[in-house]
Amino acid sequence: MNRPPIVILTALDLEYQAVREKLVDPRPHWHPQGTRFEVGRLADGRCRVALAHVGTGNQAAAVLAERAINAFRPAALLFVGVAGALYSHIALGDVVVATRVYAYHGGTSEDDGLKSRPRGWEISHGADQIARHIARSGSWKRGLPTGSRDCEVRFGPIAAGEVVLNSRVSAHARWIREHYNDAQAIEMEGAGVAQAGHLNRSLPVVVVRGISDWADGTKKTTDRERWQQRAVANAAAFAVSLAEELTAEARDDARRTTTETREPAMPETTRNVAKGNARVGVQAGTVYGGIRITPEPSPPVDLAEALAGFHTRLQRARAAGHLDEDTYAAAEVELAVADKALETDTPQSRGTLTLALKKLRGLIGDVAELAAELAIIIGLAQGLS
Questions:
Q1: What segments bear the compositional bias annotation Basic and acidic residues (predicted)?
Q2: pLDDT tens-place string over residues 41-52
């Protein structure tokens, strides 16, 4: 488990607890300056998560985000919490993924009024693509209570300032509408986290917010109705699915980079000549040791048959001690999801199938033979029309 973790930051205790409940065996990790992180792995995969509570406000979020980046060198940084919706068509409990984070308090005060000086940070293209795929597949909702599964994932800008907005008619609210009217939600930490990510070689940063109120004066009512708890549960469920997939993609990138680095350079042209009844089996330069030419095995054609065969080899890997019991159990869960998705042929089921196989890849990535076979199966799944 030496892979870079995903750092998840939260502002409120209830947000922290919603994410912590997703971790297996979380253990404290103390920063020299006193910040307490908890590091654990997600129950459904080998993704490690470093979790911290940063308190409210962009400044605190920026400082502790920078501290987390330096301590863990993460594959990505997520901020998970609640937010107020700026439009009434966004339902309580919906999840908003920030495509852009506005630091909306920047401006200049002149004789004729306050002039906005917009500043914003966009989500990285790769992280955006992965988040949208997870949203389309709907697989992230599997662990939610039945009543929460009708929530939607929305993608759009989020405004991050330094005050709690709880009015549609205040000067603060008018300022947001006039200068940032494409923002879907408002909160208080996203700008600090986005800035920290931007200053660290474009580290992928994703702000995931559950909608707990409409920022319209009804916050006390919605809080009494426990919408904060419901909204952050939805946001945490989406965020951990995103963390698993970001980890799998980071592992693939590292594997591709290693392969490209180690691949020896071949001469531009090698010509071998065969005389008499001889036949050239391979064009090569200097060869050391013996050569045996065998036909390359054909990949399995039937996806259901390939999954069944993989299940058998998974059992053998466990019996041989290549997989521990926890990893094997988690892998079986994803195989079951893949089998179920294969029973129907819809765009959503195909997305669920591919996502389950990628999660499975994250689990068995250290077993080379299984990983190679699963890569072929994923190719077959992605080739489904």
A1: 250-265
A2: 998 667 999 999
Confirm if 14 and 228 have CB atoms less than 8 A apart.
Answer: yes
Look up residue 229 and give its DSSP letter: H
* DSSP H helical ranges for 188-226: 190-198, 219-224
Angle at 235 between CA 232 and CA 238, to 5 degrees: 150
The Cα–Cα gap between 92 and 321 comes to 47
In the chain, the amino acid numbered 122 is E
pLDDT computed for residue 250 by the predictor? 76
| DSSP state string for 290-321 | -----PPPPPPS-HHHHHHHHHHHHHHHHHTT
Q: Is residue 140 classed as helix, strand or coil in its secondary structure?
A: helix
Residue 361 has pLDDT above 90, yes or no: no
3-class DSSP assignment, residue 83: strand
Q: Are 54 and 61 in contact (CB under 8 A)?
A: yes
The answer to whether position 281 is within a domain reads no
Q: Residue 2 pLDDT more than 70?
A: no
Report field, pTM of the whole predicted structure over 0.85: no
Burial class of residue 97 in the structure, from the number of CB atoms within 10 Å of its CB (0-12 exposed, 13-18 middle, 19+ buried)? buried
- 247 shares a domain with 316: no
Q: Does 60 share its domain with 129? A: yes
Residue range of the domain that includes 11 = 6-108+116-252
Regarding whether 304 and 232 lie in a shared domain, the answer is no
